[in-house]
Specification:
The complex is a heterodimer of chains A (about 650) and B (about 325).
Chain A: E1 4-5, E2 7-15, H1 20-33, E3 37-43, E4 52-60, E5 71-75, H2 79-85, E6 89-98, H3 114-126, H4 133-142, E7 146-150, H5 152-156, H6 159-164, H7 167-170, H8 174-185, H9 190-200, H10 205-225, E8 232-233, E9 243-247, H11 248-259, E10 261-266, H12 273-281, E11 284-285, E12 294-295, E13 297-300, H13 304-316, E14 320-326, H14 327-342, E15 347-353, H15 370-375, E16 384-387, H16 391-408, E17 411-417, H17 418-422, E18 424-428, H18 445-449, E19 478-480, H19 494-514, H20 517-520, E20 521-524, E21 531-536, H21 540-552, E22 557-562, E23 564-566, H22 570-579, E24 582-587, H23 593-602, E25 608-612, H24 620-631, E26 638-641
Parallel strand pairs in A: 1-8, 2-5, 5-6, 6-7, 10-13, 10-14, 14-15, 15-17, 16-17, 21-22, 21-24, 24-25, 25-26
Antiparallel strand pairs in A: 2-4, 3-4, 3-18, 9-18, 11-12, 16-23, 20-22
Helix pairs in contact in A: 1-8, 1-9, 8-10, 9-10, 11-12, 11-16, 13-14, 21-24
Chain B: H1 21-36, E1 43-47, E2 62-65, H2 71-81, E3 86-92, H3 93-99, H4 101-108, E4 115-120, E5 123-124, E6 130-131, H5 155-162, E7 166-171, H6 175-187, E8 192-197, H7 209-213, E9 228-230, E10 239-240, H8 246-261, E11 267-275, H9 281-288, E12 303-304, E13 307-308, H10 313-318, E14 320-321
Parallel strand pairs in B: 1-2, 1-3, 3-4, 4-8, 7-8, 9-11, 10-11
Antiparallel strand pairs in B: 5-6, 7-11, 12-13
Classes of the chains: A alpha/beta (about 650), B alpha/beta (about 325).
């Protein structure tokens, strides 16, 4: 058996509220402490407590950025996780479980959907096996999965442990114990788990000691009981750079602070809320000159209409202002978006897509709002729309979008999704100096005071008018949602109307000329490849990793990643797409919204469309397999992906 | 050099109907600003959509004519970003009590230091006279095909329930009193609300200038007995301060409710409530962010030679892995 070192796909699951996230973070922290690169994906229900959630981690000696279909280790401490996920374990993998639970029948698990019970049950029925957890274990074992029963309860019900606390309290540590069991399986030094526990429970010495003890007991038991080495192993590697383990909500929040955003408004909505609460938790921060005066004001409003209106109001006063939301909230923002457009007022809307329509799948992945974000609002007005593809882009784009908003004096939508919101990755510290802060035609107090007369919407060669803010002497001006003349007063004059429409619209022509190419799109891989994959947003990680695998297998594939969706770089897209013999669109939606956009602007249609809309992210394996199927001539024009729990 | 009334008047021609109550309110606002000698550039008048919402265009200060019902959220954002601005929000009763009612309530909870003036005429004027949320049940103003089948919301009570700390009512044709109310409202430290009874000569043929003035109920000498009266004439004391004892406070709330419900032949105007016991939203923020007023969010330096001035090190450290 070949020993595979430092390549791992690991998953832990359990009821929401039972410590799944804590255990995953503990395990991730232990891995990262050993210098390893970590990628995490959290899947959860729209529920506070009780429904099934799971956390998947990939660990490697090089950066990883996407979910996979093939697990190496499944760690569980409840029956539901073992039942739901055992089929996900790839050949040669491992399953750690609570030996006390094996007789649990499906029907005793209230959150196991009828559809899941039927699908899994059907297989068991055919084999004459009862519908229990144990049957699922047997199936796994038959496929060559190694089973690791752990008696969590017995390990805790010792004189030593019961002296410390009653069992009812002790058993809350099963999550820590399952992480420790995983470390033992992977022959990874327990000290990293202990270190993680110290960080996780920092300041609570008793809790730390208790958990460390529980981890030790489990680790020792595991090592003593299972003496055969497992096929995978984790070893610490050298890492000298300063790294952070960050999710997308945090990365965007950090980007906003770096950009000088000083007002953020929001109404609670998944999966956007965590960004705003992160910002509110960090409302004060130091400045590079040593002062402690940095701050961002976070306002929770009564609804999303108020959220965007207050952000625009803050922009009128001169603040860099943003609001953060998801589909249902963005639906409410449509009218105000147009107000910002006609009033040439900068505002940033950070839009985390989730499964729609209506309430849809509130905590699940989907790229279903691209067309909506491009068109939301009645009438015609310019907007910029930027889609980030990974956490690093999310940070730097969060800085850039404020530049766009102020340079072009118009709303900018920063399009993200649930995947990017909750994916977690290890990164070197972000560089706040990489993006210059550009405030466009904003007048200083001195410049405003010198104005002899002032029209807020003065016609200029660049179509961008010098901008004053409320409170500036010399800059008194008016804004209206009606069409206006240069001075901001209402007009219905047909000549002024045409000039104003053209003034606003033409700003996007300049934007396309001025925004650097790599902020518009990225062509990954060989520019002359015969097959081009076209995608955008959070699927970037899976597509890129699959691209590597395909090219290693001597296929000629590149990947065109869309970033600037409005204005759309049509000419560049045409040039690139015309070169390829085969075009494959990949999107997490039903209709191929980006493909439609490309066709609208270039007339070029995708030859194939890989589509997913079950609320779960596209994995690297799904990309690889479906592209191979297409290249093998075996695939229909639209390939629908189904993987996911 | 002192500002004159002309300094607060823009050169935009008003397109309100002749005799509209809005003119009186506009004058009172301009007179109040002059009285206070506020720098025009440090004043911003926000409005929603409707006849009343055209007001900012006629005032020579920053003017922001926003969306239907959304004046308060816009004004809130501007004020929060720069608490040193004087912000006045204006709008009609449809704008504030109908489509914007949620924002009216939500804003009340904050006690921001700004002033909201509600032009209340009982109808949607600009769309030709439909019933507004303040029109009484069963009334049929002239463009209504049927009598109004919904009851009215009481703006004063709603303001109280929502947390407005200064609540007053004026009358569009009692300009000196209204000017005083507006001035008091602006000077009040916290969120102030002024409802203005504003006859719509075109569409509201019930609550007319004559009706408010009592032309239909003359005394023996043939003198009209006005329906509107000034609370000051009844020695009404609207003040609740930290020195007001709990019992007295309850009594004052009782009087407030009683007065707010008075309608018909006796319609009170004046300051109903002036509550100085709540700190403002700005004070709450200032207690957390020391530089909130001296370097407000809108006026802060965010770059030095185009480089971000923010130091993210502590945020990175918090998520650091080793």
């Amino acid at each position: 058996m070949e020993l595979i070192i430092n390549h791992l796909a690991w998953r832990i699951g359990g009821a929401q509220g039972s410590g799944v996230d804590s255990a995953a973070n503990l395990f991730a922290s232990a891995m990262a402490s050993g210098g390893l690169h970590v990628f995490g994906n959290r899947e959860f229900y729209s529920n506070i407590m009780g429904e099934h959630s799971y956390f998947e981690l990939r660990v490697s000696d090089h950066p990883v950025a996407c979910p996979t279909t093939r697990l190496n280790v499944l760690t569980t401490f409840d029956a539901e996780t073992a039942i739901r996920h055992s089929n996900e374990i790839a050949d040669g993998g491992a399953l750690i479980y609570d030996v006390k639970l094996i007789d649990t029948p499906f029907e005793k698990i209230p959150n196991l959907e009828r559809r899941v019970q039927q699908d899994l049950g059907k297989v068991l029925d055919e084999k004459g096996l009862p519908r229990t957890m144990n049957s699922m274990l047997q199936l796994a074992e038959q496929r060559g999965i190694t089973l690791y029963p752990v008696p969590y309860e017995d390990l805790l019900k010792t004189d030593e442990m019961l002296q410390k606390l009653p069992y009812a309290t002790l058993k809350k540590m099963v999550n820590t114990m399952s992480a420790a069991a995983s470390a033992a399986l992977l022959d990874y030094d327990l000290k990293f788990i202990n270190q993680g526990l110290e960080e996780t429970f920092s300041g609570k010495q008793k809790v730390i000691e208790l958990n460390i003890r529980a981890a030790e007991i489990t680790y020792d038991y595991f090592k003593k009981t299972f003496t055969q080495p497992f096929s995978r192993k984790i070893e610490p590697i050298e890492s000298t750079e300063k790294r952070l383990y960050v999710n997308g909500n945090q990365a965007v929040g950090m980007g906003k602070i770096a950009a000088g955003c000083s007002v953020q408004t929001y109404y609670p909505i998944s999966p956007a809320t965590d960004e705003s609460t992160y910002l509110e938790g960090h409302e004060s921060f130091p400045l590079k000159n040593g002062s402690s005066k940095g701050s961002i004001l976070v306002l929770q409003t009564g609804d999303e209409i108020a959220a965007i209106c207050s952000a625009i109001g803050a922009g009128l006063s001169g603040a860099r202002a943003a609001t953060s939301t998801s589909g249902p909230g963005f639906s409410l923002m449509a009218e105000a978006l147009g107000w910002a457009g006609i009033n040439e007022t900068p505002v940033v809307v950070t839009l985390y897509q989730r499964g729609g329509p209506s309430t849809g799948l509130p905590t699940r992945s989907e790229q279903g709002d691209l067309r909506f974000a491009l068109h939301a609002g009645h009438g015609e007005f310019p907007r910029l729309l930027v889609a980030s593809g990974d956490l690093e882009e999310s940070f730097y784009d969060a800085m850039r979008v404020f530049n766009y908003a102020e340079r072009y004096q118009t709303p900018v939508i920063h399009l993200l999704d649930k995947g990017l919101a909750t994916y977690k990755r290890t990164f070197p510290y972000f560089d706040t100096n990489r993006i210059k802060i550009e405030r466009g035609a904003l007048l200083s107090d001195e410049e405003a005071a010198k104005l002899e007369s002032y029209d807020r919407f003065a016609y200029t060669d660049s179509n961008i008018s010098p901008r004053t803010v409320l409170g500036q002497a010399g800059g008194v001006s008016w804004y209206t949602g009606d069409e206006s003349t240069e001075d901001g007063h209402i007009t219905e004059d047909p000549v002024d109307r045409v000039r104003m429409m053209e003034k606003r619209a033409n700003k996007l022509i300049s934007a396309l000329q001025e925004i650097p190419e790599d902020e518009q799109f990225i062509l990954h891989g060989d520019p002359n490849a015969t097959t081009t994959i076209v995608g955008w947003g959070s699927t970037k990680g899976s597509i890129l990793e699959a691209l590597g695998r395909l090219n290693n297998a001597d296929h000629s594939v590149n990947f065109l990643q869309g970033r600037l969706m409005s204005p759309f770089p049509a000419v560049a897209f045409s040039t690139i797409l015309e070169k390829a013999e085969r075009l494959i669109g990949i999107e997490e939606n039903y209709s191929g919204q980006f493909a439609q956009l490309i066709r609208e602007h270039t007339g070029i249609a995708m030859d194939y469309f890989i589509s997913k809309y079950n609320g779960r992210p596209i994995t690297v394996d799904e990309v690889e397999e479906s592209v191979l199927e297409i290249m093998g001539g075996q695939a229909p024009q639209k390939v629908v992906l189904h993987h996911g729990i | 050099m002192a500002y004159s009334i002309q300094d607060y008047k823009s050169d935009v021609h008003s397109n309100w109907c002749p005799g509209c109550g809005d003119f009186g309110i506009l004058n009172a606002v301009q007179m109040g600003l002059m009285d206070m000698q506020l720098d025009p550039h440090n004043v911003a008048v926000f409005s929603g959509v409707g006849c009343a919402a055209k007001t900012p265009h006629y005032i020579q200060t920053y003017g922001v004519h926003t969306l239907h019902g959304r004046v308060l959220p816009f004004a809130t954002g501007a004020k929060l970003a720069n608490p040193n601005l004087n912000i006045i929000a204006v709008g009609g009763d449809g704008d504030g009590m109908g489509i914007g009612a949620g924002h009216f309530v939500g804003t009340g909870r904050m006690n921001l230091d700004l002033t909201y003036i509600l032009f209340n005429n009982g109808v949607y004027g600009l769309t030709k006279g439909q019933a507004s949320p303040t029109l009484a049940l069963g009334q049929q103003t002239k463009s209504l095909p049927q009598p109004n089948s919904s009851g009215p919301v009481n703006p004063l009570l709603l303001a109280f329930a929502s947390g407005y700390s200064f609540i007053a009512r004026g009358y569009a044709y009692a300009i000196p009193q209204l000017k005083g109310l507006i001035r008091d409202a602006i000077e009040h430290p916290g969120l102030s609300f002024v409802e203005v009874l504003q006859p719509c000569p075109t569409y509201n043929n019930i609550n007319t200038r004559e009706w408010y003035g009592g032309a239909d109920r003359k005394d023996a000498e043939g003198t009209a007995r006005p329906r509107v009266y000034n609370l000051e004439d009844q020695d009404h004391d609207p003040l609740i301060s930290s020195e007001t004892a709990t019992e007295a406070r309850h009594a004052k709330v009782g009087v407030f409710i009683e007065k707010a419900l008075e309608w018909g032949d006796a319609i009170p105007t004046g300051t109903f409530l002036r509550n100085l016991t709540q700190n403002t939203y700005e004070e709450r923020i200032g207690a957390r962010i020391e530089t909130y007023r001296s370097e407000p969010p809108a006026r802060r330096q965010i770059e030095d030679n185009q480089q971000s001035v923010a130091d993210l090190t502590p945020l990175f450290e918090e998520l650091r892995v080793f």
